[in-house]
Design goal:
homodimer; phospholipid biosynthesis (chains A, B); alpha/beta; 13 helices; Isopropylmalate Dehydrogenase; lipid biosynthesis (chains A, B); eleven-stranded mixed sheet; Phospholipid_synth_PlsX-like (chains A, B); about 375 residues; transferase (chains A, B)
Amino acid sequence: MTASADSKTSGRILISVDAMGGDLGPATVVAGISVSAKKNDRIGFILHGPEDVLKPLVAKRKHLAGRCEIRNAGDVVQMEDKPSQALRQGKDTSMWSALESVRNGEASVCVSCGNTGALMLMSVIRLRKLPGIYRPAIAVLWPSQNPQRHNIMLDGGADIRADAKDLMQYALMGTSYARNGFGLERPRVGLLNVGTEEHKGRAELREAYDLIEGNARNGDFEFVGFVEGRDLPGTVCDVIVTDGFTGNVALKTGEGTAKLIRDLLKEAFAHTPLSRLASILALTSLRRMGKRIDPSRANGGVFLGLNGTVVKSHGSADATGISAAVKLAFELADTGFTEKLAARVASATMLEQDAANEPDSNGEQA
Amino acid sequence: MTASADSKTSGRILISVDAMGGDLGPATVVAGISVSAKKNDRIGFILHGPEDVLKPLVAKRKHLAGRCEIRNAGDVVQMEDKPSQALRQGKDTSMWSALESVRNGEASVCVSCGNTGALMLMSVIRLRKLPGIYRPAIAVLWPSQNPQRHNIMLDGGADIRADAKDLMQYALMGTSYARNGFGLERPRVGLLNVGTEEHKGRAELREAYDLIEGNARNGDFEFVGFVEGRDLPGTVCDVIVTDGFTGNVALKTGEGTAKLIRDLLKEAFAHTPLSRLASILALTSLRRMGKRIDPSRANGGVFLGLNGTVVKSHGSADATGISAAVKLAFELADTGFTEKLAARVASATMLEQDAANEPDSNGEQA
């Protein structure tokens, strides 16, 4: 009996996992999914990569027994491959194979820690965009003091452009994600800009503002209006919408700032014998905080707007990071996220077509 | 004898200071300039604001005796004023008066902690752009591990747009600032983008890349090419060039991230009696680190590209922050920064005109 059939009979939800392409290699990926398997009895895996490499790794993990089917794929997309190149040579790669399991309906979510650009392009080509979606987006997580501990920002870098309509769709997609991934009933959405005063910002953002506001009721979210960079890790909203260029710069600025502070903190604590003693006493506190801002715990950029959901884990993810990405993938699959998102987008598209088909109105029509 | 004449005979460099508009009021500004006066015998001040308010404040500071001339200006630009509104009603404000001292040549640098948008607009209208400059820029400082402890980013938000030529001028202006403000002989310049791979980024950035590269020799800087958000607080370059929209989002993202970490650190240390004890022992270390990333120490966005230099201090700057801004203003004035910058820009503009006047070349000309 295959793991797949076994999982179906046991009611397990299957996650398709690309075992290759992460900086730490397949052993780390297998260790990560084993952690998830131990914690959650309802997960099963389809694991993609060279069978001769994966089989002994899986055999060593008792929690994976009967819950992890291996699909042989001999090639690996390298981190330095250009997306177009990876696509041309990609049919025998673990990444391609992992997406194939979502494409053919065996799994609804795929997890990979490989090359982001290649994964995005391959996802768009193989899974295709949802009807009505112009630009798919990468939704990333920011540590925050909100009760759910993370805010969602999109686009984190799938596409360097986004017009007003794309930004509106990002708001809908981000809201669906917040609802299904974090259990927020009515997420608060903000549109990233340089200032909250009305005289600031780009013209297309004003247009996006109106579009997002107009879809708030139908999309079942609260629109808080323009927000600033400081609100990405803030508490005024749960979902922040921006184009992929700005989003990617912001994301990496946040990472760089966190790294600088970590380095300076280390230096500060190494400065005198007393401060070294203090650092030993403070270790638990520092670790506790470290957990909150560790990107490997908030692991997983999620590709939205496709026929299927792809969770992109950090290239440098360790077993904990992989396990966090699998957990997110499971929650999205379990809540029927892909289908719900498709329905939301379809409903917004219909609204828009209705509006376009209506005769010019001065508000006199019912 | 006026302070101005006194300063001239004593060889002092005059800084024009807007005493009003900061969140903490004129007493804090006077305290700040007094700190600077005590530290540096070569600084004199022209202080702008309501005479009846400023006179007693200045009289209390012995280091300001004979070194601080007061210029009466009854009105204050408020933080919530729109720039256009501030400009219309602004002739009697301390901000207008402070810029006037630069306009008429009494001082070459002005310091204000008032409303940024109003200060920028008023500066452009009153001081006028340098010949050849299309868009002035705000240069801001990022804490970094570079030897000078800060990187320079521009534009921090003067203008939400910037084309390739503007970005090239930002590179020249940022380089002049790094040389005169931080003593870097041959600053390293990076162009902010979403990735270092050649297939990424906007088309106009590719054009800017070529323009900046072409001016590196004449501008006496090293061009390191595209950099990412994480390099803003990093060590690969000293000057980072970007448009004002992206720059402002990045700046506020950095501030927001630093604030989140500070808050989480406080929480982590308050968690148990042991961690509270550790935090007491660690206090000096934490303070030492806090100083490194405290925006009030890296105080002063600098407006570049005008006939005169304007240092914009944080609205919430305390006396230490004001004093840091004055120190920067003094260094820029002392090195003849405004004049040197103008010469650099003029030289780049001439190069460009020469190139435009040359016949089409296949590299055959000498």
